[in-house]
């Protein structure tokens, strides 16, 4: 163990032994990588320079910062594209506008690209809650009105499986250095029938963020950081009526989003359900692979739903939590000082110390998602009383895909792929991982602690934050979702039924789960059960 990590743990007194071992393993794994490996290809100065824009603690990056970073990372484009080569080309890009990130950052990144190449980009900006409906409408009606899309791997069954995307040229693979991706983002992710379609710009997993002033001997709870969901639930109940040590407002424990988010909110129930549902001896956890029968109403998921209902009944959530979606829980609650625990994507870590709206940067810590003391054994039809951890690798990350609309126009096709290659470049991706962008670390080279320190992060924070991501990506029992058609149809209807259950419209957690399962069965039959079984098995490697 590094001396500085040990001293940090001793001083903070906020980590239990399991977390210390976790941190040690993460540090050991990173130490095996050659020092300075991320800088070995001649991009060291660029990487160091862009990470100083604007610098940690210097406030939220602005459009001017995005433009500077984009211009400084243009060498890959210049190696493959002549100046003015795409003059007269217009491209349409569809993506998100969440938190003034995603598309807004892409605009800045691509300003210098447009100036150099001569191409023009038109933008379709979507709220997260509207994304699935807009994409599905385009697919169903055959009216794909965009050339490039920011899309997650779960939609690959809907898009790649229907032949709607353009295959990646070899020169793009070389420009973006795909070998640098963490293993779980390599093939088959981003591929279909052996062909590659995706430029990764993100690697998604949910990790556990907590307030360090909520835990430890002299803290508001007087307890160590919880490592299981029952501990999380009890602490959340015990905090009712107490005062937040940072804000002086009412203290709250774990923040569950109780409002849907266009299907993306279902991931947050999965955080709770995964350690109960994902048995180490069974690759499946959402459906039965032989029949596509939903497992969402088995005792594991019912336990997760019941836990949320118990906290609602106990009055443990902030006022009006029934109207809080995941964006609210992360950006308007946790980062703003409400609540002591949350499971979220890497945005919380990247924003904690680089966003003007965050007040928790000095007291936030990270670990792998909580586990359970039992796991449902589907084959045996019983609970196995054993500790179980199953981090939720939710969404498998955003990527950039070029649509088949560009086929037949080589100039436009090359321009579209050049956009994707620029946004997914090795250097620009490091900056995007370190600052509030909507994306988190997804390349092996992102885990070079020294680079983050140069940006202004302190070593302990970096090891804690990056370690929680690495441990989740690489966990042998990680819960990874299937890339099957209609996956967000399943998730969206699950959100709808959960909302009814949380509002008391169903009589129990089991009744809520049964309603989700019944809706899932209808979706499977509509899509085609036989084909879904085949694709689901393939996604599980069966």
TrEMBL record:
Q: Which UniProt keywords apply?
A: Signal, Transport
Q: What cellular-component terms does GO give this entry?
A: periplasmic space
Residues making up the signal peptide according to the UniProt record: none
Alphabetized InterPro entries for the sequence:
Bact_solute-bd_prot1 (IPR050490), SBP (IPR006059), TAT_signal (IPR006311), TAT_signal_bac_arc (IPR019546)
Q: Does the keyword Signal apply?
A: yes
Where do the coiled-coil regions begin and end? none
This protein's source sits in the domain of life called Bacteria
Instruction: Name the Pfam families on file.
Output: SBP_bac_1 (PF01547), TAT_signal (PF10518)
Q: Where does it live in the cell?
A: Periplasm
Q: Which family does it belong to?
A: Belongs to the bacterial solute-binding protein 1 family.
Put simply, this protein is called: Extracellular solute-binding protein
This protein's species is Roseobacter litoralis (strain ATCC 49566 / DSM 6996 / JCM 21268 / NBRC 15278 / OCh 149)
According to the entry, what is the taxonomic lineage of the organism?
Bacteria, Pseudomonadati, Pseudomonadota, Alphaproteobacteria, Rhodobacterales
């Amino acid at each position: 163990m590094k001396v500085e990590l040990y001293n940090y743990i001793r001083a903070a007194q906020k980590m239990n032994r399991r977390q210390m071992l976790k941190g040690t393993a993460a540090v050991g794994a990173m130490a095996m990588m050659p020092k300075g490996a991320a800088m070995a290809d001649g991009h060291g100065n660029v990487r160091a320079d862009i990470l100083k824009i604007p610098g940690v603690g210097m406030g939220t990056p602005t459009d001017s910062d995005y433009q500077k970073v984009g211009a400084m990372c243009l060498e890959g484009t210049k190696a493959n594209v002549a100046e003015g080569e795409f003059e007269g080309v217009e491209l349409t890009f569809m993506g998100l506008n969440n938190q003034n990130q995603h598309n807004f950052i892409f605009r800045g990144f691509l300003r210098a690209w447009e100036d150099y190449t001569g191409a023009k980009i038109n933008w379709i900006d979507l709220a997260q809650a509207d994304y699935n409906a807009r994409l599905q409408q385009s697919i169903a009606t055959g009216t794909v009105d965009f050339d490039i899309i920011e899309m997650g791997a779960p939609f690959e069954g809907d898009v790649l499986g229907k032949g709607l995307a353009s295959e990646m040229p070899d020169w793009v693979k070389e420009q973006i250095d795909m070998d640098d991706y963490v293993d779980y983002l390599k093939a088959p992710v981003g591929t279909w029938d052996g062909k590659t379609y995706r430029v990764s710009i993100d690697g998604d997993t949910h990790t556990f963020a907590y307030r360090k002033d909520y835990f430890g001997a002299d803290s508001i709870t007087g307890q160590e950081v919880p490592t299981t969901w029952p501990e999380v639930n009890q602490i959340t109940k015990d905090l009712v009526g107490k005062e937040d040590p940072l804000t002086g407002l009412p203290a709250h424990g774990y923040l569950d989003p109780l409002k849907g988010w266009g299907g993306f909110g279902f991931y947050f129930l999965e955080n709770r359900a995964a350690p109960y549902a994902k048995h180490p001896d069974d690759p499946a956890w959402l459906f039965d692979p032989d029949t596509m029968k939903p497992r969402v109403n088995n005792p594991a998921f019912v336990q997760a739903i019941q836990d949320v209902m118990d906290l609602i009944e106990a009055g443990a959530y902030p006022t009006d939590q029934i109207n809080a979606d995941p964006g609210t829980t992360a950006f308007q609650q946790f980062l703003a000082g409400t609540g002591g625990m949350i499971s979220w994507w890497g945005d919380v870590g990247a924003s904690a110390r680089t966003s003007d709206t965050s007040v928790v940067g000095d007291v936030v810590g990270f670990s792998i998602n909580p586990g359970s003391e039992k796991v449902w054994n589907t084959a045996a039809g019983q609970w196995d009383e054993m500790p179980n951890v199953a981090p939720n690798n939710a969404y498998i990350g955003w990527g950039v895909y070029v649509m088949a609309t560009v086929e037949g126009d080589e100039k436009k096709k090359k321009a579209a792929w050049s956009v994707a290659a620029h946004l997914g470049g090795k250097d620009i991706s490091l900056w995007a991982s370190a600052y509030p962008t909507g994306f988190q670390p997804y390349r092996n080279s992102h885990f070079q602690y020294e680079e983050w320190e140069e940006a202004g992060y302190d070593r302990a924070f970096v090891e804690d934050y990056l370690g929680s991501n690495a441990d989740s990506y690489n966990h042998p029992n990680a819960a990874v979702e299937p890339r099957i058609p209609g996956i967000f149809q399943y998730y969206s209807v699950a959100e709808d039924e959960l909302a009814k259950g949380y509002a008391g419209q169903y009589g129990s957690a089991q009744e809520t789960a049964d309603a989700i399962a019944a809706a899932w069965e209808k979706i499977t039959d509509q899509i085609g059960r036989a084909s879904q079984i085949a694709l689901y098995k393939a996604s599980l490697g069966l």
